[in-house]
């Protein structure tokens, strides 16, 4: 058994298949789709191909290779799961970027900004003079430069909730008719 040239892989497989099951059981892996079994089988094949008799017993090498490949697969799946979860969180943050009013379990879009005239620099200057620095950052980056709340938070090194708060404050001001008169902005709400 120490010389791979005298035994075919089928013979080695028949003698050592239980090693795969043993390692799966030992690592407490739930394998309903046999993905880990297949990974163990590939590891056994690679071990069979790379085995050198003068380096030690084949059984030890099989155990080592199978176990480490299964552990690598566990780590990869955890990484992929975490990456998918992070992507979901980012997507939800972009979808729920503070432009919705939630009341009684329902979500209503907040009045859009289609009435903003991007070609009137005086309107923007008047608006800027009436807002705090952070509120203006939100107007400039979110409305004028169409950045996501997450991107603004990353750029300004703050939280997504803080950026959402800036936007809520701006919206509150824009809904106030006295505020709109001060900046000479006539918008039908």
TrEMBL record:
<keyword id="KW-0804">Transcription</keyword>
<protein>
    <recommendedName>
        <fullName>RNA polymerase sigma-70 region 2 domain-containing protein</fullName>
    </recommendedName>
</protein>
<dbReference type="GO" id="GO:0016987">
    <property type="term" value="F:sigma factor activity"/>
</dbReference>
<keyword id="KW-0731">Sigma factor</keyword>
<dbReference type="Pfam" id="PF04297">
    <property type="entry name" value="UPF0122"/>
</dbReference>
<comment type="function">
    <text>Might take part in the signal recognition particle (SRP) pathway. This is inferred from the conservation of its genetic proximity to ftsY/ffh. May be a regulatory protein.</text>
</comment>
<keyword id="KW-0805">Transcription regulation</keyword>
<dbReference type="InterPro" id="IPR007394">
    <property type="entry name" value="UPF0122"/>
</dbReference>
<dbReference type="InterPro" id="IPR013324">
    <property type="entry name" value="RNA_pol_sigma_r3/r4-like"/>
</dbReference>
<dbReference type="InterPro" id="IPR007627">
    <property type="entry name" value="RNA_pol_sigma70_r2"/>
</dbReference>
<dbReference type="GO" id="GO:0006352">
    <property type="term" value="P:DNA-templated transcription initiation"/>
</dbReference>
<dbReference type="InterPro" id="IPR014284">
    <property type="entry name" value="RNA_pol_sigma-70_dom"/>
</dbReference>
<dbReference type="InterPro" id="IPR036388">
    <property type="entry name" value="WH-like_DNA-bd_sf"/>
</dbReference>
<dbReference type="GO" id="GO:0003677">
    <property type="term" value="F:DNA binding"/>
</dbReference>
<dbReference type="Pfam" id="PF04542">
    <property type="entry name" value="Sigma70_r2"/>
</dbReference>
<keyword id="KW-0238">DNA-binding</keyword>
<comment type="similarity">
    <text>Belongs to the sigma-70 factor family. ECF subfamily.</text>
</comment>
<feature type="domain" description="RNA polymerase sigma-70 region 2">
    <location>
        <begin position="13"/>
        <end position="78"/>
    </location>
</feature>
<dbReference type="InterPro" id="IPR013325">
    <property type="entry name" value="RNA_pol_sigma_r2"/>
</dbReference>
<comment type="similarity">
    <text>Belongs to the UPF0122 family.</text>
</comment>
<dbReference type="InterPro" id="IPR039425">
    <property type="entry name" value="RNA_pol_sigma-70-like"/>
</dbReference>
